[in-house]
Write a structure and sequence with these properties.
The structure holds two protein chains of two kinds. Helix content of chain A is 50%, strand content 11%. Chain B has 24 helices and 35 strands. In chain B, β12 and β13 form a beta hairpin. Chain B is globular. Classes of the chains: A alpha+beta, B alpha/beta. Chain B: InterPro entries: DEAD/DEAH_box_helicase_dom, Helicase_ATP-bd, Helicase_C-like, HRQ1_WHD, MZB, P-loop_NTPase.
Chain lengths: 448, 806
């Protein structure tokens, strides 16, 4: 008779290949034994018994190995304190002279100037639509390490690091979930850290860390402490200011470029899940200390990036940011003078799109001459947008309809051009050909 | 504005007086001209409506909204559904097509939304149905606001819902209309995002219940186990409301699906026009070979006659290809002048949603006279009233047959349904046994929610959603044992008394409720340098329809596949004027991997185990329209499609086989014929569709397999499809396989193994009792002209093999 145990039945249904691939940690499974005989008449096929498997399960390598997780040696090894069974807390007080990258930590305080904070405030997600001048303090920098990137209710935030200012220095705390069933206590500790936070500062936390923590709190039956919190995700401002000039906007890229901080021997974030599982399953400690260090670096970089990003919006050139993107942001928030100043100072390096924007800003404040010069030089290089702007300018402003028509005729073919040309021809007939010629004046552009 | 008329009966009688004549004229013309082809007929008399009052506790806004839409009274089953649903009971409404089932659930749901602020989840098996339903709810919502009440927010939630709209659906929707796949992959694994929705959930509405059977139903039953588990987490116990077409066991199926007692409402209070039903067997054109005219030729003829009498008709075909072929033939007759709006319309899966919506609109507007459709239209998509339904071939189940026939005859008009038999054994069986169709539904929709692999998949998903606690149950298997197994796999970790998910994966993505989800192919039209997506083809159908050189048809416009990007899942096509269509040749190679059990039976052995299967598409045939001549071949270069599945197989003792059928050529043909018959009776036996099972003949080691060659003879082929000499000296042990045509198997082969002896008896009776002489498509498959005069006819060889194995 064939084996009726669950494993035996599954092995039969599933076949060897599938079973092996489904086995995550590569430990041997029962159905690895295959009888290749095509047809054994009325015989039986050997299968591992379920008892064999249970034995392996209980005494074997996978679940409860002899080196079962030992929290106190973990705590000792990483220098953490065990605040409850299964919850470890590692605390470090950093004085203001500690360096992270190119500057001491003490520099990582935003200037009192609320104007500098303004762009960040605008990119902050705020539960209510308060019109805050500056960021709400204190800022709490937060970063989690997770059991995976898959999302959904089966992903854990097993480590949560928080960093905040403490007097002249900084206080960095990392919470580590060392036992799965201790999650409620762990979450309570995280919640307490957030209790007095003015602004939560993360990197990609809007899409990742935030929703994940929210899910964990809901699963544990707690109210969501993030719900009413101001949340500044630094990925937003980074993308806006540097998205077009950097190869990518990863945190490591940002910290190298803005803080000149280079990680050495960092454990990649992608290896964090395996490190935690290694601890849970086999009590491995070493990889976890790598995760802790990685998480600390993330937190310090967050703190460093906040002022650097704020300044990038004030003086993009100094930080290598994209002046056009920054100016566009300011303009969208109604700071046209600032936008204009930024673009003007970078004028020599601007592309046509940015120059058009600059011309638009000139036009809006009535500086037609400056706008005209930009349009003309752009149009001379064949820029159709500039040509269109010129056509409009001459149609409505100088009323040089002939010139306007000539410009319009050079626009790319299409319904828009036809409409514009028809309108101009109509106007020309109305005022009479001669009048049109009169208006033509002497500032006529050389047709190309 | 004139309010819509509320009196259903008066509209109906007005219609019937003007149109009764053509339907009856068509029927009598068919009877007079083709009496010999009509193997059975039935008339279902018209029935009167059974009315009930609107419920007195209906909230005033809903009451006036219903009245504003002309609903002054309810059919008896609608009122019965209200009473049960408001009492919080699980219920199933199984009444005929077009009996107003939608209102059975919409009324109690809207009442609870309006008066208690509760929420409801609607599930439809397809996206198209979900969209229809939302349109319907929107209309009701408008009526509500017009009667001064509050509106309702009903949203679809499916793969097309844009990311930025999903949050609004989750937090603001009163009614979320989705499908089981979304519930499984997107909602349950993210239930915390839906917390607000779950906390208010009062009703789960499951329409088209009868489609939840087999593999799909077994999966969905487990999805519902997970749903109820999540609901308990949020402290709610929603009532399930099921709606079903007529099957034998709606209540049983519903109970199996939701795992709780369900009240059944089976009596329809809706009136029905007179229904005429004809079973039509195409004439025998070669009595010796038992070859009949094609169903297609008959269906198009009946459709033409219907359209010429001014009737609106629908033709249901079983494959997408057949839809296109029939559409072309009908368009050649009715749509010759491109200046006129088309009178013939094709409707099938694979068209883009926008195109389908346009088609539905044209049908409702009545500008289309003939619709040719696949099962995509079988389910409740609203296309307005039709007079005639023609089924080109038996759809495979009585429920599907009745639902398709029910497409004709809305609004109390008399209607005509014609089932045109194909030469398939099942169709021919029905022509000989019409009571199968005319009597009470013989069909029990079966599901196996505790099928081990399916169950384990969902235990995995459920563990991801919420940790299991010791003592919890999930399905009929020992949960603790399954959890231990998953821990051993490394995805779970037990701590305290709970089992926690710890793996870095999202298990629902690896579990498809219907088939292997490998990603759909898009068909890109590159004619004149354009890049327009004109259709989508599912992974399983792609190799057989999108190979380079294939003619792919959309609305009977042929396109030729120029390039297939297998990895990118794209087929680039250009418009063509080819006068042929293409049909892929495929063959199956099978290798036994593991034998679970076996026994001696008859003069041979039967066994059950795991096999490795390779589908290959070596080439295709070009077939000319109308003449159906084979006008050429092309090669297909595609990767092999591999599958592990379970199978049952039979072998004869070599000595006994040689004694009965010494000629190996004959023996191979006998096995092929026996496989054909066994395949069909097996599908009936396990209540599966024919395509749920596959058949093959080979040696089980992948060194040779047998096929019917282009010359109609059995051939031996090698591992690369090369022809082999049959009378070689090799060991000759032909093996007949029936395999579970689903990766991993869905437990179809085990019952076949247990029932093997009965199965062989059935197959022998089918072959022995057939009316043909030497073999025909209704027993052993098509045979060659002249073979019926052989000393050993194909029928006899097949019988010999079946006797040997029995």
């Amino acid at each position: 008779m064939a084996d009726r145990s669950l494993a035996g039945r599954l092995g039969r249904l599933r076949g060897p290949t599938k079973d092996a691939s489904a086995c995550v940690d590569g430990s041997p499974t029962a159905s690895g034994d295959v009888d290749p005989a095509p047809l054994v008449r009325a015989g039986t096929v050997a299968q591992d018994s379920f008892a064999d498997r249970v034995q392996r399960l209980m005494g074997g390598s996978s679940a409860r190995s002899p080196g079962a997780p030992d929290e106190s040696s973990l705590a000792e090894s990483i220098g953490a304190e065990r605040i409850a069974p299964g919850v470890l807390r590692l605390e470090r007080l950093l004085d203001g002279r500690t360096r992270h990258g190119c500057a001491p930590l003490s520099c990582f305080v935003l200037d009192a100037d609320p104007g500098l904070q303004r762009p960040l405030v605008e990119m902050c997600s705020r539960p209510a639509c308060e019109d805050d001048e500056g960021l709400r303090w204190p800022a709490v920098f937060l970063d989690t390490e997770t059991s995976g990137l898959a999302g959904g209710t089966g992903t854990w935030a097993f480590m949560t690091g928080v960093l905040r200012q403490d007097g002249d220095g900084w206080r960095l705390r990392q919470y580590l979930l060392a036992r799965l069933d201790a999650e409620p206590v762990y979450l309570e500790a995280v919640r307490d850290e957030l209790a007095d936070a003015g602004t939560l500062v993360t990197y990609n936390g809007r899409a990742f860390d935030g929703p994940l923590l929210t899910t964990r709190f809901r699963l544990a039956g707690f109210p969501d402490p993030l719900h009413d919190l101001h949340h500044l995700d630094l990925l937003g401002p980074t993308r806006r200011a540097f998205g077009r000039v950097w190869p990518n906007c990863r945190l490591t890229t940002a910290e190298t470029r803005l803080l000149r901080f280079v990680r050495e021997g960092d454990l990649p974030g992608s290896e964090a899940p395996a490190a935690w599982l290694g601890w849970l399953r086999r009590g491995e400690i070493a990889p976890l200390s790598g995760v802790l260090r990685h998480n600390r670096w993330d937190l310090l970089s967050l703190a460093g990036l906040l002022p650097a990003l704020a300044r990038s919006f004030d003086d993009p050139t100094a930080f290598g940011a994209d002046p056009h993107a920054v100016a566009t942001f300011h303009r969208s928030k109604g700071r046209e003078a600032l936008a204009l100043r930024l673009l003007e100072s970078e004028r020599g390096r601007l592309g046509p799109e940015a120059l058009l924007d600059l011309a638009r800003l000139y036009r809006r404040r009535g500086d037609w001459d400056s706008a005209l010069r930009l349009w003309e030089s752009l149009s001379a290089t064949g820029d159709q947008q500039a040509r269109l702007a010129l056509a409009k300018y001459h149609e409505h402003r100088t009323r040089d309809l002939t010139l306007a028509l000539e410009l319009a005729l050079g626009l790319p073919p299409g319904a828009d051009r036809e409409r514009r040309c028809d309108r101009l021809r109509g106007k020309l007939t109305e005022v009479g050909e001669d009048a049109g010629r009169d208006i033509e004046g002497d500032r006529r552009l050389a047709p190309d | 504005m004139t309010p819509p008329t509320s009196n259903d009966a008066s509209t109906a009688s007005r219609h019937s007086s003007s149109t009764a004549l053509p339907v009856e004229r068509l029927k009598s013309r068919l009877l007079a001209k083709y009496a010999a082809r009509i193997s059975a007929r039935q008339v279902q008399p018209a029935t009167q409506a059974v009315w009930r009052e609107l419920p007195p506790d209906l909230t005033p806004a809903l009451d006036s909204a219903l009245r504003a839409r002309g609903l002054e009274r309810l059919y008896s089953h609608q009122r019965a559904a209200w009473d049960l649903a408001r009492a919080g009971r699980h219920l199933v409404v199984a009444t005929p097509t077009a009996s107003g089932k939608t209102l059975c659930y919409n009324m109690p749901v809207l009442q609870s939304v309006l008066t208690e602020g509760r929420k409801a989840l609607y599930l439809f098996p397809t996206k198209a149905l979900a969209q229809d339903q939302v349109a319907e709810l929107m209309e009701l919502g408008r009526a509500l606001t017009e009667s001064g009440g509050e509106g309702i927010r009903a949203f679809t939630f499916d793969g097309d819902t844009p990311g930025d709209a999903r949050k609004a659906v989750r937090t603001r929707g009163d009614i979320v209309v989705s499908n089981p796949d979304m519930l499984h992959q997107a909602i349950l694994p993210h239930h915390t995002k839906w917390a607000q929705f779950f906390e208010g959930l009062a009703y789960v509405v499951v329409d088209e219940l009868h489609s939840y059977r087999g593999v799909f139903g077994s999966h969905v039953a487990n999805v519902f186990r997970r749903l109820r588990r999540i609901c308990r987490f949020y402290g709610v116990e929603p009532a399930f409301i099921f709606a079903s077409a007529t099957i034998a066991n709606p209540a049983e199926l519903a109970e199996r699906l939701c795992g709780a007692p369900v009240e059944a409402i089976l009596e329809s209070g809706a009136p029905q026009g007179e229904r005429h039903l004809l079973l039509w067997n195409p004439p025998v054109i070669n009595p010796d070979l038992g070859i009949r005219a094609s169903a297609r030729s008959q269906s198009t003829r009946i459709a033409r006659m219907a359209a010429k009498l001014g009737l609106k008709a629908i033709v249901f075909a079983r494959s997408r290809l057949m839809v296109e072929v029939i559409t072309k033939y009908l368009k050649d007759v009715f749509d010759q002048d491109p200046r006129n709006p088309p009178r013939v319309l094709a409707y099938r899966g694979g068209y883009l949603p926008s195109e389908r919506r346009r088609g539905e609109q044209a049908m409702r507007a009545g500008t289309v006279d003939l619709v040719v459709a696949t099962s995509a239209l079988e389910l409740g998509v609203d296309i307005g009233a039709l007079d005639v339904a023609i089924l080109n071939g038996y759809p495979g189940t009585v429920a599907a047959t009745m639902q398709r026939l029910g497409r004709a005859g809305r609004r109390l008009r008399p209607s005509l349904g014609v089932l045109v038999a194909s030469s398939d054994p099942l169709d021919q069986y029905l022509m000989r046994n019409p009571e199968f169709l005319f009597g009470a539904s013989p069909e029990h929709a079966r599901i196996h929610p505790d099928q081990l692999l399916i169950l384990l998949d969902h235990v995995r998903c459920a563990a991801f959603e919420l940790p299991f606690g010791d003592g919890e149950t999930f399905g009929a298997e020992d949960l603790g044992e399954m959890l231990s197994y998953l821990r051993d796999e490394g995805v779970l970790q037990r701590q305290g008394a709970r089992w926690y998910w710890v793996a870095d994966s999202y298990p629902a993505n690896a579990v498809s409720l219907r088939s292997v989800a490998e990603g759909n192919f898009v068909v890109v039209d590159t004619t004149d340098g354009a890049q327009t997506i004109i259709a989508e083809v599912d992974y399983g159908s792609a190799p057989g329809t999108l190979y380079e050189g294939a003619i792919y048809m959309v609305q009977s416009q042929p396109y030729q596949v120029e390039k297939l990007d297998w990895v990118g899942r794209k087929a680039f096509v250009t418009r063509t004027r080819a006068d042929y269509y293409t049909d892929a040749i495929d063959y199956t190679r099978l290798k036994i991997l593991d034998r679970f059990e076996g026994r001696l039976q008859g003069r041979g052995a039967v066994a059950n185990g795991e096999v490795h299967l390779v589908h290959r598409y070596p080439g295709y045939k070009k077939i000319r329209y109308y003449s159906h001549d084979n006008v050429g071949y092309g090669n297909i270069a595609l990767p092999d499609q591999e599958m592990h599945t379970t199978s049952v197989w039979w072998q004869a003792e070599p000595a006994a086989l040689e004694a009965v059928l010494p000629d190996r050529q004959k023996a191979i043909e006998g096995f092929l014929g026996a496989a054909y018959a066994l395949h069909h009776v097996a599908a009936l036996r396990v209540m599966a569709e024919l395509q749920d099972l596959g058949r093959a003949v080979g040696d089980g080691q992948g060194t040779w397999f047998a096929v019917v060659g282009n010359d109609g003879r059995g051939q031996m082929r090698g591992p690369d499809n090369e022809p082999l000499e049959i009378d070689g000296t090799r060991r000759f042990e032909p093996t007949l396989f029936l395999y579970d045509n689903y990766p991993g198997g869905v437990g179809l082969s085990a019952p076949l193994y247990d029932d093997a002896q009965r199965l062989l008896g059935d197959a022998r009776d089918l072959v022995a009792g057939c009316a043909c002489r030497g073999g025909c498509p209704a027993c052993v498959g098509p045979i060659l002209a002249g073979d019926e005069d052989l000393a050993w006819t194909p029928r006899q060889t097949a019988l010999a093999v079946l006797e040997l194995l029995k």
